[in-house]
Amino acid sequence: MEKPQSKSDKSYKLMVVGAGGVGKTALLLLFTRMRDRYYPDDYDPNFELTFAREVDVGDESCRLDLLDTTGGIGAPGTDSDLQSRYWAGQVPTADGFLLVYAINARQTFEELPAVHAHIVELLKMKKNDGDHDGDATQTPPPAVVVGSKCDLEDRRVVHPDEAKELARSFGASYIETSAKAGINVDEAFIELVHQIQLRQAACHRHRKSNKTKKVLELRFPPFNGSLAYDPT
Question: Which residues cross the membrane (predicted)?
Answer without folding.
Answer: 12-31
